[in-house]
TrEMBL record:
UniProt entry tagged with the keyword Phosphoprotein: yes
GO molecular function, one term: protein histidine kinase activity
Record key words, sorted: Kinase, Phosphoprotein, Transferase, Two-component regulatory system
Top-rank taxon: Bacteria
PROSITE patterns: HIS_KIN
Name recorded for this polypeptide: histidine kinase
Residue span of region Disordered: 123-151
InterPro entries registered for this protein in UniProt: 2C_sensor_his_kinase (IPR050980), HATPase_C_sf (IPR036890), HATPase_dom (IPR003594), His_kinase_dom (IPR005467), Sig_transdc_His_kin-like_C (IPR004358)
Location of the Histidine kinase domain: 18-126
Classification of source organism: Bacteria, Bacillati, Actinomycetota, Actinomycetes, Micrococcales
SUPFAM superfamilies, per the entry: ATPase domain of HSP90 chaperone/DNA topoisomerase II/histidine kinase (SSF55874)
Pfam families with a match to the protein in the record: HATPase_c
The organism of origin for this protein: Citricoccus parietis
Record field: catalytic activity: ATP + protein L-histidine = ADP + protein N-phospho-L-histidine
Length: 151
């Protein structure tokens, strides 16, 4: 199974919120990709996190068929699930993903491409938006005599 996580700057979000979002999306993706009825080439999961122009973008994709057209309008409803009911219940994870995203000022979207793709976009808090780090071989400029960094 493939995976990729890249966060290129501090986000300012709590670990609990990020785990709620990514944990539920990755868990669902693994369930979809692990289906033994799926062809081997469709058993994949990709997760990505990056910042883009003041937003944290979290994306989880899998090779599963995704929900039916009828079910797509309900996947974020509390208590709705396309999976069989289990002892712990079903239909909570994606509702928590949306609730958390909305509470942080963002949103979540489901698309079907070459698989099922969930994308969460969250506005970065102002204090988390920082310029990219300079490479080690390109130190910041200094002022003559004072050695202070330009800001």
């Amino acid at each position: 199974m493939d995976y990729r996580i890249e966060v290129d700057s501090p986000t300012g979000f709590s670990a609990q919120d990020l785990v709620t979002i990514l944990g539920n999306l990755v868990d669902n993706a693994i369930d979809a990709a692990a289906d033994p009825a799926r062809p081997a080439e469709d058993r994949w999961v990709e997760a990505e996190a990056h910042t883009d122009a003041g937003w944290l973008v979290l994306q989880v994709a899998d090779g599963g068929p995704g929900p039916s057209a009828e079910d797509r309008g309900h996947v974020f409803d509390l208590g709705f699930s396309t999976k069989p009911a289990g002892p712990a219940g079903r239909g909570i994870g994606l509702a928590l993903v949306r609730q958390t995203a909305l509470s942080l000022g963002g949103d979540v979207e489901l698309t079907l491409d070459s698989g099922t793709v969930f994308t969460v976009e969250l506005p970065l808090p102002a204090d988390a938006v920082r310029p990219p780090r300079r490479p080690a071989d390109n130190p910041p400029p200094t002022t003559a005599g004072g050695g202070h960094r330009d800001r």
